[in-house]
Protein 1
Amino acid sequence: MSEVISVVKRQGGFQYSVDESNIQSDDDEDIYMSDDGNARTGKMDTGNNDTESGSQIVTPGELVTDDPIWMRGHGTYFLDNMTYSSVAGTVSRVNRLLSVIPLKSRYSPETGDHIVGRIAEVGNKRWRVDIGGKQHAVLMLGSVNLPGGILRRKSESDELQMRSFLKEGDLLNAEVQSLFQDGSASLHTRSLKYGKLRNGMFCQVPSSLIVRAKNHTHNLPGNITVVLGVNGYIWLRKTSQMDITRDAPPGGSTGGGSSTSSGQNSTNGPTGAVSLNPSITRLEEESSWQIYSDENDPSITANIRKTISRYANVIKALAYCEIGITQERIISAYEVSMAYPNVGSLIDRETMESIGNDVLNGEKMRGNAM
Amino acid sequence: MSRLEIYSPEGLRLDGRRWNELRRFECSINTHSHASDGSSYLEQGNNKVITLVKGPKEPTLRSQMDTEKAILKISVNITQFSKFERSKSSHKNERRVLEMQTALIRTFEKNVMLNIYPRTLIDIEVHVLQQDGGIMGSLINGITLALIDAGIAMYDYISGVSIGLYDTTPLLDVNSLEENAMSSVTLGVVGKSEKLSLLLVEDKIPLDRLETVLAIGIAGAHRVRDLMDEELRKHAEKRVANASSK
Amino acid sequence: MVLSVAEKSYLYDSLASQPLIRPDGRLHTQFRPIEIFTDFLPSSNGSSRIIASDGSECIVSIKSKVVDHTVETDLLQVDINIAGERDDSMIVETLTSLLHKVLTSEDGIDVKKLQLTKKYSFKIFVDVLIISTYSYPASLISMGIYCALNSTWLPKIISAFDDLEVAELPTFHDYDLVKLDVKSPLIFVLAIVGDNIFLDPASNESEVANNGLIITWSPQGGKVISPVKTIALNDTFIKGFNPILLKKGIKLVEENASSVAQALETL
């Protein structure tokens, strides 16, 4: 019989106690006043602040270098010729650029990033999209595919009908087209691989765990497709026709590109002749009102739903263990999780740790450890 | 029955400390990762302070937005159970608390590089679970730690400490009994320098004693800075080691 | 929590299906893991901090004061503070009155345990601070209060019980304390989607619930007590439900509440 509730309890402290080494802290130390009024403490400062891995850790106000030759990047500031750190993080010296990478920060968009975002606001000829960054991203009306195809003229009624395309709360995947002066992003969905998301579930992980890669949409065993937004927003859905053909091996030149539009016949013939990427001529044929539909596929089975829940839980387990999230690791974690037939048991802390360990150990054994 | 001696002839205070000793100082960061971008939990003597930093993020109100720099918002929640005697009424809109918030904003707005986060809001939420004197100093320390944990760029640490003046003897890091028995000063010191980001004097202090009080306060704040830095480095090293093993 | 129409539709279909499929795969009786810390506020008589797996956090402090119970009728005061909410907001006021009702009801806290002498009793102040919450926090708060009261120590009285003729206040031992022997009732929140009813709804589940139930359970009698009422967990999917589900919900609580209480007890 499964446990109703798992409780971890500790008495006598606000949180788990810090490391043993903190107990022998010398914070009752006296402050000595020397003649010139400057204080000296009885303890020597720790000299070397390099970590085992060799990267230097700096904290705000710390001098990084006094060499004027460096170009100063993010996380630093300079006074006279001295470069100081403005964040707590690791020093990065790349070519002539000296910067400090903070230990933790919000997602910072870069041009070309494939992200998942949620509409926060509908504005004047634009949408403002929450991508988990310091500011909302902007999606201009002219940067989306309007039903009817590429040659469709933008009309005034489009501006008034913006909510019929995307409204507050809608989830979509998009690409960062460019950045504004202040670092905020401008998005576009001008490809059939981008657009409104449906047939599945959302989950979120810290953006630092998603590595920038060539492809962010992956098909997973069990008929599930995952979209790993670089910003840490993740979408799990039932694999669609388009997902299947996207991953299909390159075949003949003709053949139907797949889409959700009803008029188009998508051929998945025995030769597997399909087009890999919808070409620009396809866009006008395939853009239809369905791309902005809120309706899910009615044939999502209970099995698909359970599989999606399982994937969501293993992704959360990887995030809990602070493991970088890739297609291989998700599949590996999924396979490891099959040892627990009850999907709900995967939310337990110990189980999440065990799955994380198994994934890492599996990699080490296969020689994939980084 | 012994009388309470604020400062005994042997040089001992009520809690056994000497004039230049700080109270027990323990801090940790990243305590509330789900609910914030940066967080800290700080115990300074019997002061227990939780600080949450949310941001830089999209401002909730358009009117709050500044196109040139980030807006800094600080809200201090002094709980009704923070002192030994439970407070009858909530401190939410109390003038003293509003003044504390303003003073804290002034303390940090020149130190945090607000101009590199235009059009955003940095929302700082502080909860005082328990207080026993020198609370303003603890608030400053908690906020410094949480801002650094959030990865928000700043010029340097700001460390807070209080100094009481018992007749002619300065007493570093006063507790509430001492605070009620004498005049005290709170300092917000920038990093390892002698620059002050905050000088808070709400009681009468003889001017000729001020310099000594400031000197001991600055030294004490430097020590606090070192303690905060030590914890931050330890945390950073653990994180980097953790990340590199994956 | 903001969700898209497609997301809500997917969640609703999953939760309304037979048997129900929860987004994190939990059983309809399964709670999410929680962490509890107690005894960390020396200036309070009792304290607890409870953290749920979605990051919701609630801190409870218990403080006491000696009062004349012939004058003071209410020996239990509850104060709730939700970070970011005004004190006069609806959520704060409804939660405060709910918790007060639960604690002061007949099957709630036994105020006889607070009595010191013929004239005086302890008055208990329950202060709740919610640092963050992503769904209706009544259950989390009640568990926090349960653990805080369970670890509350009050001063030990050394003066006489019969003090009707005496003018002085009771006197107490210099350092000995007595553990407060009361058990707070627990509040359970249930969600109803279609013909399904389940415990501990997460924030995304609450967003698509057709209705919600608050069912209170007393560890004293090991039974469901009042208040039992419906609550709206969102404002878009609300509709009526079959009363059979009310019976089902009460049964779910009766079957699982004692394991929850037991889990909160164990150290």
Protein 2
Amino acid sequence: MSRFFHAKEDSDSDTSSSEDEVEDQKVNKSAKFRDDLDFMAGPEEDEKRVVRAQKDKKFDELKGIIKQNRDAKSNKDLNRLLTGFDSLAKAYDKSKTVFQRQNVANPRFYIRSLVEIEDYVNKLWDDKDAKSALSKNNAKALPPLRQKLKKYIKDQQLQDLVTDYRVNPDEDGYETPEDEDDDDFGEVSESKAEKSPGKPSEKAAVSDSDSDSDDDDSSNWSSEPESNSSDDEDSVTKMEQLRRYFLKKEFRVESKDDKKEKKKRVIRVKEAVEEDDDADWTPVNREKSVVHFDPKEEVTHDVMIKKLNEVMSARGKRTTDRNQHVANLRKLLEVSEEKELGLGINVKISFCIISALFELNAKISDHMEYETFMTTLQTVNSLLDLLIGTDRVKLSVTYAEEDENLKDDTQEYRIQGSILIAVQRLDGELAKILQNADCHSNDYIEKLKAEKDMCSLIEKAEKYVELRNDSGIFDKHEVCKVYMMRIEHAYYKYQDQNEEDAGKLMDYLCNKIYTLDDEKRLRQRAMLCHVYYLAVHDKWHRARDLLLMSHMQAIVDHSDVDTQILYNRTICQLGLCAFRHGFIREAHQGLSEIQNTQRAKELLAQAVGTRQHEKTAEQEKIDRSRQVPYHMHINVELMECVYLICSMLLEIPHMASCEFEMRRRMLSRSFHYQLKQSEKASLTGPPENTREHVVAASKAMLNGDWKKCQDYIVNDKMNQKVWNLFHNAETVKGMVVRRIQEESLRTYLLTYSTVYATVSLKKLADLFELSKKDVHSIISKMIIQEELSATLDEPTDCLIMHRVEPSRLQMLALNLSDKLQTLAENNEQILEPRTGRGGYQGPGSWFPGRNERQGDKQKGSGGYQGERRGGQGQDGKRGNWGSQGGQQRRHPQKPRAF
Amino acid sequence: MSTAVTITAPSVKHILLDSLVVMKIVKHVDSELHAGISEVSGDACAGVLTGLVFLEDSRLEITNCFPTVRNEPVMDDDANAAQQYEEQKQHEMLDMLRKFRTMNIDYEIVGFYQSHQFGAGFSHDLVESMFDYQAMGPENVVLIYDPIKTRQGQLSLRAWRLSTAALDLASKNDWRPELVKAAGLTYQNMFEELPIIIKSSYLNNVLMSELSLAKSCSSDKYSTRHFDLGSKKSLEKSVRAMMANVDELNKSIQSLTKYTIDKQRHDNMVFSLTQKRQQENESRVARGDPTIPMDDIKRIKAPQLQTRNGLLDELLASFDTNALADFSKTVTSENITKMFIAEAVAEEKVAGTKDRTLSSVSSTR
């Protein structure tokens, strides 16, 4: 502690030589004072720290009263002095408990004040002249005051202190000596506080080392805890503040004799203070902070462990410089390796280093520095290597701290901790780093390289787990997590060559989790990843069956947000997979769940929603932390395009078939929206983006012009934006063109059936460049499904149209049924009156879009769950997926059936 | 409508209808229908029923009837003309009753008859006249005759009267939703139907049995006329009428919805205002100040149902729709039965070929 004062003196000495004297005195005094206080306060420092504020309050209170007393004294107002003394005694009585609890002795300024009053009263008492000169009131007050004082000092057993003080009184020149005293006090306690923050247990460690140092009689040791606690910039600034406080007071002292110069000095002193702010301080600290052992002493296990404990005790403290902390640990590791203290210690220290590295940034939401991440990765890697290399070290969370065996060579080393959790945390940090990197910069690619290292590390961890799984050191959950991490690093990657192996690996990993995991969450996630992986690799049937078997669509609403995001991603990927396989309806169903919401990006966690006003900063932060790193993104534009193409293929024939129906049922709202938008435009130019391409193609198809439609869908621009993104682009393109031909034929027949009485199949085949057999099959199917009222005439190869107009009664009946429907709707509304737009949604709810938007309005901030499937639309959608199986069974026959 | 009406519960359980009355009604309505008068005037054929009440058998005997004079179309909007007609009508009715009396026919009015297609013509006016008649004599009923059914070879006569609850509401002419709800009135229990027994004279009965035994007429029994599906037109008409009723229902339901919402809002408002006022008054009492009366709150106007007759229209529309639906149902089911029979017959005659041309009605989607 004295170090500070010396240093301060140094820095002050150059400001003004005239101050030196005062300074010196003060320093001496405070040092002395501190010493005896220290002695008294020794054993229970920490408790005092807790209630410091209270103590200060009491001090202030006392000082205020003393000040009043002094005023009264100088005014010779004995009456006021008497009451003042009473209140002082009372206040002191009250605060005594506080002092006692904090082990503060009777404050010196209090004693001084008592002595002063006593002296004054005695003087008055003795001085007959002065006494007679007193006013009547004052004269009355004097005897009781004197008696009270005497009695009080006697009662409180303050005689010793008073006599002590008399022997060694404060200088008379002080104007406000008690202030200074208090400051000394404050400083002492403050420096104590610095010395011993943190939890009591750490406290104990420090005091332990303290006592140790006493025993050892080693000067180095004794300075250790202090240097530890004070090597921080924080403490420096704090000391700095203290010093300023001192300096200011010095002016006050000075001001007595030299008021004119005062201002100048202030500036000068302040300047000086600022000058020597850091420059002077930091180097001193650094020098002292390095961990070192006494060269004379042999470094044994015990010493090392003690040292480690000591260093670790600084962990997590506000005042600890984290970088320094890591460096200290590193040093320890070096020493321990040097002295060959055994693996146990090494592993323990390494593990401490890893956790220290993780703690380098204070906030959990902040991401790690990339460099730190790499070092951490390496550290973990080497530790893992070490652990794999030997089976004598057991690192497990199941051990308690007391069970640790760090030194005993003959037994296995047992250390508390989990390397797997470290790996997991590292993985999380990587995700955070990638989330926070600019995804369009080279920087991102640089950082992405770490992903590979991470993968190999996880692989290594898995190897380690499989190696040591029998020894029972792993928690089941931990093991699951390791497998899960591997899955999560693999599921979205497309592997072209030796696909079989990769698929097997995925199966293996997922099966591990299916068997190991007790809680459902990981199993669900693994299942979704599995489905995703299968979908990416074009294993449509397996992927779909797995998803349907998992019943995820039924439970996903009740699962956590991350799983929901994964589910959304999986659904989209599955939809794309179905599209590649030509299962247009399935693809449409899969994609519409996400695409119809108009917030696909948000639902896939690839962008944060723009509606800030609905979200608090907190929520926004959470949302941000959930974002999927860029390299895992699903191409939303591609998805939208695929969705629109699917919609086109399904919707256009549908539109043609119910052109005259009063109520059109829309399959896809967003597709209709796009169509309507383009119809609204007064001038339709050539299509620019993919969306416009599809819309233009749809219009062409509606007119039955399949060639134009095809040109819009398959061209250079679309190749670049859409088709080249498929790994089997040519097959997909072929499939789409073929579907366009078929659907155009259907649309053509439906739209123009009224114009024809008969059509030759050959002509149709020529028109749509399909084989006659295909045309035949398509037409037959339409006839069977009662879409087209016509018959095929085999001998002439003609399609004969039948014109059936509904009879009047039928029309009327249809009208009536419509009316009844509205009646039913209105009726429902009576049962459940609702204001606003929300109303009975029964008949409309096969279409999710409408409800979705309503849902948004109702619970905009409901997180991913509410957003994705608002309102009552979900049941309908759920049904869709469920029924998909049935449709699917029909589906494979489609190309062959006719 | 008089306000002070004592409503006595009717004690009649069934109706004994003289065949004479049936014949007279059929003749009256059919002739008018043929002449197309009802289409011109837009009014239903109507007449007065006379007879007597047998309280000990709780039976109403209707023994005679006579048609009332039709309103002649009023050329100018002469306010006096309508009144004159009314007087004239009244006068003729009294005159007829007097003649009945002199001829020793039952001259006590026991109700009235009206013809309505499909038996569904319950309008506000009809309810009003039913109330008038029932107020006059508690046992009075209305006979609704369906000329369409007659055309199809069946006789449809149904006797109705207003239920006590409906009568109660009609006496106040207040069909507010709350009251209707409190009375537990639905379209099903608004009207009460009474079973009708048609009584022919013995001479008649003898003639009938002789006719049925006579050989010359018996071939008629098996004529193909029974297979006639010529109900398409009437079905169309009934569907059309149903649509009109459903439209009506829709309208009233919408206004009812609006009313419920408004009412709820109003109730809430009044409640909160009252509570506030009560609190204020309590504090005023505590202070010794005079209390503020609640009059202004009570004066806040409650929302009104936006239909003319409260829920009455809705009830009537429901009732009519029900009747129409019944009609359609019976006709279609009959037709389907006929078709099956026809098919079977046809198969017997021309083996092998099924003729589906008859199935025009069934081919609804």
Protein 3
Amino acid sequence: MNSRFNRLTGLLAAAAMSAPMMGAPDAWGEEVSIGVLHSLSGTMAISETSLRDVVLMAAEEINAAGGVKVGGKAYTIKPEVVDPASDWPLFAEKAKELIVDKDVAVTFGCWTSVSRKSCLPVFEEYNELLFYPVQYEGEEQSLNVFYTAASPNQQLVPAAQYAIDELGSKKFYLLGTDYVFPRTANKVLKAFLLKQGVPEANIMEEYTPFHHQDYQTIVSKIKTFAAGGDAVVLSTINGDSNVPFYTEFANQGLTSDDCPIVAFSVAEDELRAMDTSKLEGHLAAWNYFQSIDTPQNAAFVQAFKDYCVKEGLPGGADRVTDDPIEAAYYGVYVWKAAVEKAGSFDVDKVREAVYGIEFAAPGGKKKMHESNQHTYKPVYIGEIRADGQFDIVWESEGLVEPDSYSSLLHPGGKFPAPTGGPKAVKH
Amino acid sequence: MPWIVWLFAALALVWSPARAEAPAGATLADAAVLELARGLNDNATAQDAVDQLVALKDPRVVRLFNRLMDNQLRTLGREGPLVWRPDDNGVLDPLAKERVAVVPAPSDEQLADLKSFRGKRKARRGVQQRLALLGLEVDDVQTRAESARSVGNKRQAEALPLLRQLAQADPDAGVRRLAAGSAALIVLDDAQASVGDRAAAAQTLGELKSIRALAVLDGITADAAADPAVATAARAASKQIGRHIRFTSWVSNAFFGLSAGSILVLLALGLAITFGLMGVINMAHGEMLMIGAVTTWACFNFFGGVLGDYFYLVAFPLSFLIAAAVGWLTEVLIVRHLYKRPLDSLLATIGVSFVLIQAVRNWKGDNLGLKTPAVFGGGFELMQDVTLAYNRLFIIVLCVFCVVATAVIFRFTKIGLVLRATVQNRAMAESLGVNTRRVDMFTFALGAGLAGLGGYGLVLVTNISPQMGQTYIVNSFLTVVVGGVGKLVGVIVSGLGVGFLTKFIEPFWFFDSSYAQIAVILIVVLFIQRRPGGLFPDKGRAANAATGEDMPFLTKYKASTDWICGALFAGVFLVLVPLLYGSGTLSPEFVNKLGYILAFAICAIGLDLIWGYMGVLSLCQFLFFGLGGYCMGLYLINHGPMEGPNGDIPRALFVVMSGVGELSPPWFLKFFRSFPVAVMLGLLIPGLLALLIGVTNFRSRVRGVYFAILTQAITVAFYILFQKNELVLGGTNGLTNFTHILGFAIVPDGDAGPFAQTRFWMYMVTVVVVMAVFVVAKLIVHSGFGRLLVAIRDDETRLRFIGYRTWVYKAAAFMIAGVFAGIGGMLYVPQKGIITPGSELSALASIMVVVWVAFGGRGTLWGAVWGTIAVRLLYDALTSGAPDWYVDSVGALPGVGGFFTGVWSADSWMFVLGGLFILVPLLLPGGLMSIPSRLRRSA
């Protein structure tokens, strides 16, 4: 197994981190710009700022290890940071600016689906690349995007399976914030559960608007729903609604032993802002946890903390890593490896080089899909601990192949063709 | 604690003589027991480990299990020995009865590497069931109750004899009830039990009103094969339980309503003072809440280590004082200059809010977590199935305290007296020797301090972040307005009213919480139309503003300015930009950007017409823009890429529709297929909605801030509505994937010249439309109708007494403004490439239109145009960070270079923009358009 991976070109994140600090190779003076398109203000800053930080850290590491080596030259990465300010149309504007004015070779960015939808036409129009690091609802496959986080079958379905097998759940409360990801996620989940023979009456679906604060009514509904035991909440609640939800859940006397909550949008970084004593024992499904116990991951976590301290970022040494942070981080390394493999920054060549590439991410070995733009990833279920970290209670056997379009939603298997791609292909 | 009590009781149980003949497990060495226990943490062995440990019938195992369930077990390092860690210090023997330190004492290294040992879920479930069985005989009531419930839910038939015993003889009524319920549940769910027993069990469950039995009972009722006697009993029981659920949910809803209402009162009380009494449209109110919450967080962070949960006591005065201090500073530095211009206070306080958000963000980041004091966990069980959460009870108490304290200050203190006097009649108060400056300072600081206390309370129910204030600002304004601006008692009644209303609407099956919010907004809008002064109409400073006594500051400018601006506009946008674009100096992207910014300007001209000239502040102008945009978007997706089995579903809608069995295009899509029809709808829909809003509100004489806040609420309703997937408008992702307009490809054609690009011509059309709309607006302003609008602004009442039906003119002007916005939206969408509810329909978007107009100078029309262009270009430039030329030149300045490059960065643009929003109303009242007259005056 190891020898297979050892053949890989130099994208080993751990190797890069342990490399001695060599300083930027300014002797060559070659630079390549990369775009960083994450909200630093507005409602999404709470999540996206950490991704900006980790992308900058990856760039700094790569520069310290000698830069991106193409055609016998070493290129120093110059990150261009912009703030799309949680303003969806501004994402398109900033993407354009990065591509046209800053002449970036690639862009790392976006969190919400709507922000990705906003700048996607821009990346397709200019045939440029975006690395998108957050799990999402799927139903998309653009040749101009690499999706380094989970598609629904890499997060939702294994979690539902876990609930049935391990939690012994018979009743499912699908609770989400009212936007496209939870809606699609729950469609996938419901299709899966029905297929597993869960009667329709045992599945509840409920949505709340963004920033919903008052979960009294909903928790009391859950309480009635879960009174007979064997119920589970599958939660796609987003962002600042989570604290009110979990708080209310605990205060109305429900515990993770009565009715566990399996969350799909709560990771370590969000837990920093929560009173975890109310969350202990609840679960989350991801493809990476900070608690993955390997030397590579320990080094990554430490490097991120050190970076935050060194840069004087808020949180400092208390900062944590999580799934999107890992995905954002190795995205940079995947791109670097693909560029070096292709021997060029040319988008069409880099795209081809990304397909099927295997790499060592902090959380372990992963692989880009051979054709559908997504990533083969392991799946983990973790239990929230009092210290805001996760105990991994289940993990998939090996890597799970990603779907771009869900086979549960398109039983015929008739998927739309990929969008975007090289100009010449488009009539 | 119950686990400890239980532990001793369980010990007694295991040692009871009846079990003395059990295998002598006690002989098993500690090490062997611990080795077995390790198996709990491995999925493969978990079940076995539980069984083997139980088979030992050993008190050490009971202790171990209890400690496991209390999450008190750790291992020293990954492979190290298992230890008991009941608190943060001890590392104790996990099997010992007393606190015995482990031998050998762990090294510091091991101590630094404690791993939590929780056991796999399978193991925990097994252990919990075992402990539950034991727990039935424990002294502690709560443990017995938990156990009685748990064995029933798990249908542990072996517990039946004990359960029956408890159901008869337990001293605690709650335990008797749970035990009886569990026993009945086990019997009912056991197909082997006799018909008589099962029917009796069903009856018992009905009498116990056992909600957890409902699913089983309904299952039997629905099961055709069930014995008729059991089924009849089950049906009766199910009905009985249903009645109980309805009753308890009414009781719960009443409490939920009270709690939601008290939070609203707490949020709005401070605003009722700064906005209600003082007339400042205080957009920074949410940030005062945030300051209070962040102060509480800081107390936790800095004193939590020493004080433990008592940090919350310290935070109480501090959150008030610090928020009050920030409020005081705001008043002294900014707000006091704007009392005569309440509407300008909107712009300045938005600036304050930007600055405060960014300051906190740069200080400690967005993730501010704290551990709320333990006393606020859990709740008080009012009756069966009704729990009142302690944190919510505390907030109710806090709310009562704030209300009472405010009332006492106002009624019974000297400062309260002069405060009321100042609010009622400033001039008279002054002439009687009241220092109104000091009163103003105090009042504003008091309002901010109360907001700080609101934030202090919120910490118990929600999370803390620099952005949190934005979540509450709309509701706070709405609460104040419904209550009646200027009367504190109004806030209390309206806050509680809205709280109850929401909580009694939400549970209905056809509502989810989104529709409940929309319904509440609708009800509030209709209410205000019936009572345009709110619940308790009053005459305060704001009430005066509402009747137009405080005239907005207006720039007088000469006709020549019009011509100069016109020439400048046409010269730049119609001649210079195309020339530079053709020569390659300006990128197509920049021209595209100018194109959609000018589309915003059309929207702003509309707002200036009704705000600047007619004096009606609207906070839904961008809603009309969005609606126009959606109409054009629907046209565009009709002619874009298609997906779906029949290839007739636009790609933008595909993602919200994908799924089995719903794959036909939405019914309304075909109406937007033809361009002229889509454009007509793009004019009609915003126009008619504007007319509807105008007629209903102006006719019932909703005015001033009441109207402004109402329109904001309407915007929020649409914002929530358009995010719903079931509307098939693309949900939160909105409409995108536009490729062709009128048959022309939108995406640039690399081979064609710059003047053969669709985007360029969309820009040109926008420029021409801006000029056309401007001319129309100008003609309106100079017509008799336009004079009437100004007259309405200056004194509507007089106009009405002269015999004009002012509402007709107001509604007409409002409709025209809405149509202008719709035009802007239609021009914007094809150039921008996307329209989403999150951005275009948000409350902030409509506020920003007001900002553009105020920045440019209202009542000038040109101000709307230049203000929009200036603010948008600044926003775009600042959020991108400084360009290289700036870093190279300004950054090189000695001493100050670092500061200036730091200021222009993606991390601090809110300081710059916020600062400008503050400075413009202070230094340039009248906005950009007042610059020429100022220059003339100073010359």
